[in-house]
Every structure is written in C-alpha cells, then in structure tokens.
Amino acid sequence: MMSKLLLLCFLFFLSCSHLLLSSCFSFSNSTKICPHGQSLALLHLKKSFSIEKSYSNYFKYYHLPNYPKTEYWKEGSDCCSWDGVSCDLVTGHVIELDLSWSWLSGTIHSNSTLFRFPHLQRLNLAFNDFSGSSVSAGFGRFSSLTHLNLSESGFSGLISPEISHLSNLVSFDLSRNWDVEFAPHGFDSLVQNLTKLQKLHLRGISISSVFPNSLLNRSSLISLDLSLCGLYGRFPDNDIHLLKLELLYLWGNSNLSGNFPRFSENNSLIHLYLSFINFSGELPTSIGNLKSLQTLSLIECQFSGSIPASLENLTQITYLNFYYNHFSGKIPNVFYNLRNLISLELSRNNFNGQIPPSIGNLTNLRVLDFSDNQLEGAIPSSVYGFSSLSHVRLQYNLFNGTIPSWLYTLPSLVELDLSHNKFTGHIGEFQFDSLESIDLSMNELHGSIPTSIFELVNFSSPCLSSNNLSGVLETSKFEKLINLKDLDLSNNMLSLTMSVHSNSMLPNIQTLDLSHNNISGIFSWNVGKDTLVYMNLSYNSISGFEMLPWKSMRILDLHCNLLQGPLPTPPNSPFFFSVSHNKLSGELSPLICKASSMGVLDLSHNNLGGMLPHCLGNFSNDLSILNLRRNQFHGIIPQTFLKGNSFRTLDFNSNQLEGLVPRSLIICKELEVLNLGNNKINDTFPHWLGALPKLQVLVLRSNQFHGHIGVPKIKSPFMSLRIIDLAHNDFEGDLPEMYLRSLKATMNIDEGNMTRKYMGDHNYQDSVMVTIKGLEIEFVKILNTFTTIDFSSNKFQGVIPKCIGNLNSLRGLNLSHNYLTGYIPLSFKNLKMLESLDLSSNKLSGRIPQELTSLTFLEVLNLSQNHLIGFIPQGSQFQTFGNDSYYGNPGLCGFPLSKRCTTDEIQYPSQEIEAKFEGGFNWKITLMGYGCGLVIGLSLCCLIFVSGKPEWLVWIIDKNIHKKIARNKRSTCGRGARIS
Question: Over the range 560-598, which residues count as b (16 or more CB within 10 Å of their CB) and which as e?
C-alpha cells in the first residue's frame, strides 16, 4: 500500500515538473528580459568602437579565444543573449560585461553609455585598444562592482580617485597600461578603502610610493602583482602572515630595497617573483617554509652568501632562477626531493666547487643553467633519466676532463653550451637528432668533427671554434643541414674539400666563420648564395675565388690569405669588405664604387697600384673606413668628398701619392684618423684641418711638407688631437707654440674615471705606426688614452716652448734631429705620464733639470748629441738609463758616464734663473751706469769701513737677490729663455 502511494506521488511530481518546464520555456521564448534602454545603451557603445581585425594576429600568441563579440549584437534581439553580456534572471539588469579580446579600438569618454549600467557586478575590457582613454570617475559609479579588469587596453593618464569608492571590489586588474599613474596618495586611498580585495594586479602602473604596510595585513589577499610600479624605499621587515596569498610579484622595482621576506609556516604561496629589485643579504632558513612554492625568481638582485639547506623543503618547486646575484660557496646537495623541478638556473653568480650529485634525481628537468660561475672538476658521469632535459648551459666555468657520455644520449636535447671551459678529449657521437644549437668553443677539444653532427637535421647554430680540431671537411657532408643558419668553426686546424654539389649549398645559412684554419687553394664553395650575410675566411691560405656570388653579403672578411691577381670585385651589397694582407696586384677598378652601401673598405698591405679612382671619396655616404695603406698607388688623393659623409678613418700611408692635401677634407666632420704618412705629398702644413672637431690622429710623416707651421687661423684648433706625427719633413721655424697650447686632448686625462677602450668598433679597429721609445712600433689597436707628439727630423729651431709642460697626459715626445736651442724647460717636470722623451741631435745647452727625476713612468730618455753640461740627475728612472742617453754631450758628468763631476759642476745654479739674468743683460745700460756705480761704490766702501759694520752690506745684497729670484719664479709659460 505504501509503495503504491509513493508511486502516485512520483508520477504527480513528474507531471508538475513537465508543466513547470513548459511554462518556463514558453515564457523565455515569448518575453525579452533585457530592458529596452539597456539594449540601446549597448548598441550605442558598440558604435563608439571600431573593430581592428589586425589584433587577431597579436592575440593568437596567447592561445586564448578572441573574436569581435560586438559584431554579433543585433538590434531587436534580447541583449541578455548577446556575447559577453550577462543579466540578472529576475530583473533583467545587465550585471556582467565581458568584452575582453574583442578587437575593439576607440576612446571611452566620460559620457560613454558604458557607465549607464549601475547594477554591473563584473566588467572585463582587457586586451583591447582604448588609446586616449583614462580610468575616469565613471568607473567609480559601479557601486556593486566586484570584478574590474582593464588590463593591457591602452589606458593612460591619472587614475580617478573615485576608483577607491568601489568598496565591494574583490578583483582589480589594471596591469600593463604603461602610461597610467596614480595621483599622490591615490594608491594609499585605494588600499585603505578596498578592504575586500583578493586580487590586485597593477603591473606597469606608476605608483611611485613606498610599499604600504597595510597591504601585508589584508588577510583576504590571494594574488598581488605590483611589478614595475616604481615602488621605492624599504620593504617591511616584519613577518608576512597572509595565509591565503598564493602569488606575490614585486619584480622590476629597482629602487625597492630590503631582505628576502619571511613567511609563516602555514602559508599558501605558490608563485614568488622578486627579480630586478634591490633586495640583498642572505636567504633565510625560513625559505624552507614555502612548501607549496612552485616558482621562485630572484633574477638580478643583490643576494649573497650561500644557499640554505632548507631549500630541500620546497618539494613542489618547478621553476628556480637565481640568475645574476652574488651567491657564493658550493651549490648545496639539496635536490634529492625536488623531483618536480623543471627549470634550474643559477648562472652568473660566484658558486665554486663541483656539481652536486643530487642533480641526478631531477628527472623532470628541462633547463639546467649553471653558466658564468667558478665551478670546476668533471661533470658527474653517472647521471640517468634526463629524458626531458632540453637546455644545458654550463659555459664560462672551470670544468675539465672529457664531456660525459650521457650528454650525447639525451633524447630531448635542443641546446648544449659548454663553451669557455677546459674540456679535453674528442667530441662524441650524438644519439638523437633533436639538437638545434651547440657551443663547444674555447675549450681544448681535439680530433675530428663527429659524423653525427652532419645528421642533425634540426641543427641551426653550431659553434666549435677555438679548439684543436683537425681533419678534412668535405662540403658535401653538409647537405642534410638545410636548417643551418650559423656555422662557426674558426680557430682550429681544419681543412676543406669543396664540392659544387647543389645539395651542399645550405639554403638558409646566414653567417659562416672559417677563419684561422688550414683552408687552401681556390675557394669554390658557393654556400648560401641568396642568404649569407656574414662570411669570415681570414687567416687561411686561400689563393683565389671562382667568383663572389653572394647577393645579400654584408660582411666579407678575407684578410691574411694568399689571394693574388687582380682585386675581386665585391658584391654590391657589402657593408664591410677586407682583403688586407694578401698579394693582390693590378689597378683599383672604378667598379668598386658601385658598392654604394659600403661602410668599411680595407685594401691595405697588398701590391695594388695605379691611380686612385676619382669616385673613391664620394661613392657611399655610409663609408666610414677607407684603408689603402702599404700599396703602390700613385697620383693624387681623390679631391672630392661628399658633404655629410661618414668618413671616420682615411689611411693612405706608405704609397707613392703626391700633390696637395685635398681641401675638401674640411667637410669630413666625423673624421678621427687621417694618415698620409710615407708618401710624396708636397704641401705646407694643412692648418685648416684644425677645424675638424673629432680629429684624434694626424700622421704626415715622411713626405715633402715644408715651410713654417705658423699660427692658427681659428681659435682653439685640433681640440681632440692626441696623436700627431710630423716627422721626416721639411718644416722650419719655431715650434708651433699656439697649436701646442690647443691640444686639450693631451691634458688632464682622468684615466681612473675613464672607460678604457680602443678606437673603432667590433667590425674595425684603427691602427697606427709610431716611433716611440726609440723603436718604430705598430699599434694594431689605439687605446683612447694614448697620446704622443713626434716633430723629429725637421728643421725646427729656437727654444722649446715651456707650455709643452701643460700637456701632462703625454706618453711620448720626440723633438729629435732639429736645430732647437736653449735649455730643457723646467716645466717638463709636469709630464707625469711621459714614457719616452727624445731630444737628441739638437743644439740644446745648459743642465738637465734635476726635477725630471719625478717622471716615474719614463722608460726611454735620449738627450744625446746636444751641448748639455753639468751633473746628470740621479734617482728614480734616471738610474736605469745608459750611456746612449747622453753621448755627444762632452760637458755632462756623473753616472752612468765615466766622467766624474767637480764640486762646481754639482752646485751649478738654476739655469732658468740664470737665463733671466742673462736675457736682461745689455752693454749699453752697463756703460751708462758704470761711472755712477763707481762713485757710489767707493763712497759705500768708505762708509762701511768707518762704521765697522760690513754685515749691513751683506744684508742688503742678500735681500735684493732673494727679491730677484722671487720675481723670476712668477714668470709666464710662454716666454722661452734666450741667450743673447
């Protein structure tokens, strides 16, 4: 009976349910719950934006659904059914609007219909383009809003204070709107009023405030991202008790200091990013409390000390990155239980010792990066189970021994970098073809390149340079490497057998470096004809090319080979073309001027001859380096240079060029190096070059320059000049004192606060031949602190200007083989950086100033063949100079000469004071005063003997002599002492 009653009740319930569902279905199909006003507001909102379909290409990288939702909003239909719109089922009010990823473009004005939905609880406008829009007061009217997402949508300007009125907000995401900022105290107000916040993401918003302590008391917080917000000051040192906090991002606040935060044991933290901030100190042992932590990023902070052993408690960790800190000591053996670790990056620290054996337990590891440390010893050999390991970076350490066999058997290996270590032995055979990039450069590996290398079909960038690899490479072996982009086998002992087989052309290769090997004969490997942009074959024994077929070549370096015959015409595209130090001959064809994008042209050290093409100075606005040194060119230097040209270096040294220095060089405003030495140029001093603002090196030596240098035609010429060589010409007259006064680049160089670098860039570095320390030396690189003056072997006469002593950063000074007279200036004591001083073969007289012993850097001194007298100074560097420094001066005495000095020679009075007395001596004045002086003298003598006090005369004479000496010391730099 009871069962029948239950059955009847069940049937009655089914019947009622059916009627109820039918009624509901009928209502929903016959009635629109969206109020008409809301439909109109939404349609008006739709019309205020345009649809930018190009955004779809950008959004596809996020792998999230994106489409123009408003395109499906149709007038006359229920707005509550539109994409991105949700309504209250009872009232029909719009309570949620999700237009994220909708390709919208336009400005949200303060009177936008967006703000006509007072019942809105959720608003998501993320990933659109609302450029020109601000986070205006309208957003503060949504009093029921719990979720607001405006991230990455192009908002800008100040955030309205009304935002802090949204007291019901649970989630607020304004991140990646890079031009948005809080008004002063605006962020503090927001933190104080939005007490229900669980998610606060403001990445990239300018807060420019200290970190508010009140945030660490907000127990509701689950996710906090304040990255790149301009936070400054010190992060609170108190313990963090946010038990629900799962994500904390503070990275990119470089002015935020502090220590690693301390978290309580019962925390829920999963993601912690503290990279690129000024946190320092050691990691606390409390880091072991983060037992739920999956990602920990401490990139580019100031942490130091050793890693605590409590790190072994982070059993859930998957991503651990301590890149670029100051950690030291050994890497702790704490990885036994960290089996979930996928990425372990400890590069650019000061770790030492060996790799801990527990690394072998990280069977899920994909990235292992210990590069840029001081790790040593052999890599562990008994490692198994790294089936997922794809990136191994151990470069820049001190590892030695052979490369362990397990590295050749990793099935997922994509990148292997063991460069800059001390590995020895052979390179083994790789068992899988997943490898794309390998760098074993700067080791001590030897033997041949393994054959498995040529089977790696995904290979894109192998670098095996700077080892001791040997053997013969057949170009046909490369035919399977169709994805190869960069190949560097430089600095080995490899030779090459070339094949013209079409399959070895490497259709995608872009850079090829085979320099410093044993490649010889004709180079016929036309590899990468359409794609190769960089090729370096320097320092081989290549004798020629079948052709230069490369259409896209930008850098072609063939210097230091055995190329002979006429100059190969480069492609029209290269920016850098060097064939220096070869045996090329013949004339320079005007076809070279078709390479209109040329930036560096180096043809130096060959046997090229003939006249230079007139177009050479004006065929390319990009040409910055033209080096024709040590050839057989004759005729004149090209006379035309383009206005606005880029010339930085012009080197015509050691040819047979003649004529005048081209006046058009005055328009080469970027010129730093002009080398015309060792030619037949017949001209006067090119004083107009002094107007070139960047000229640092001027070499005119061994030509037929002549005449007086004279005085400058402009104020402050040659302000940047620091290497000047006028040696072996026919200049005459006085040394150019006014020019010497202007050499500011040789004065007061503060090397301590100066970045030492070489002239040039990574493509080309300048060189110069100078005579210094008695030797002709080629500086293959010119240090930016090197300075020298060489006026030797001319016909200069007169005294040495004292103002040379102002050039206190000078390294070398050579005034030898001229007709200079007078004394060695006492001001030379100021040349504290001087390493070489050559005043030989002149007519200098007087003593060697004792003050020159203060020149502690002086290595070479040559004062021979002059008329110097007196005692040779002793002490400091003068103890190291031999007889050769002084021979030809019969009046000198003392060490190292065998001639001993008399008492008078040792106590010789100051020559500069004497010069002042002698310089003022005149016989006419003496004769005019002789009579008066005789009468006064006799009267004084009588007075003295009568008074009995001859001390009075001594006192007067002594006083006058001291006054005379004091006046002489105040004399100016410019007047040289002359003997009449």
Answer: bbebeeebbebbebbbbbbbbbbebeeebeeebbebeeb
The torsion defined by the Cα of 213, 216, 221 and 223, in degrees rounded to 10, comes to 90
| Residue 659 φ then ψ, to 5° | 90, -150
Residue 541, Cβ neighbours under 10 Å: how many? Answer: 14
User: What span, in angstroms and rounded, lies between the C-alpha atoms of 807 and 816?
Assistant: 18
Q: Which residue intervals of 890-947 are DSSP H helices?
A: 903-906, 911-919, 923-947
Question: What is the per-residue pLDDT for 642?
Answer: 83
Calpha distance 78→162 (Å, rounded): 32
In terms of DSSP bridges, do strands 534-536 and 555-557 run parallel, antiparallel, or are they unpaired?
parallel
Cβ 373 vs Cβ 350: under 8 Å: yes
Highest mean pLDDT among 791-805, 872-886, 953-967: 791-805
Q: Considering just the CA atoms, what is the radius of gyration of the chain in Å?
A: 42
Q: Are 430 and 452 a contacting pair, CB within 8 Å?
A: yes
In degrees, rounded to 5, the angle at the alpha carbon of residue 769 between the alpha carbons of residues 763 and 774 is 145
- Characterize 223-248 residue by residue with b for buried, 16 or more Cβ atoms within 10 angstroms of its Cβ, and e for exposed: bbbbbbbbbbeebeeeebebeebbbb
**Average pLDDT score over residue span 903-912:** 56
pLDDT of 772 higher than 90: no
Q: Report the C-alpha dihedral over residues 359, 360, 362, 364, rounded to 10 degrees.
A: 140
Reported pTM: 0.81
Q: Contact at 8 Å (CB) between 266 and 243?
A: yes
Which residues are CB-contacts of 637 (< 8 A; sequence separation ≥ 6)? 612, 652, 657, 659, 661, 662, 676, 681
**Helix, strand, coil proportions of the chain in percent (round to 5)?**
25, 25, 55
Measured distance CA(87)–CA(81) in Å, rounded: 9
In whole angstroms, give the CA distance from residue 18 to residue 295.
53
Nearest-angstrom CA–CA distance, 252 and 968: 64
Q: Which of 812, 905, 906, 826 is nearest to 862 (CA)?
A: 812
Angstrom distance (rounded) from CA 136 to CA 161: 9
Q: Is 142 in contact with 120 (CB distance < 8 Å)?
A: yes
Tokens 């072998």 correspond to: 360
- Sheet order of strands, 374-377 included: 232-234, 255-258, 278-281, 302-305, 326-330, 350-353, 374-377, 398-401, 422-425, 444-447, 468-474, 493-497
Q: Which residues contact 6 (CB under 8 A, 6 or more apart)?
A: none
Lowest mean pLDDT among 435-444, 513-522, 547-556, 963-972: 963-972
As a whole number of angstroms, the distance between CA 612 and CA 625 comes to 16
| DSSP result, 144-185 | T--EEE-TTS--EEEPPGGGGG-TT-SEEE-TT-TEEEPPTT
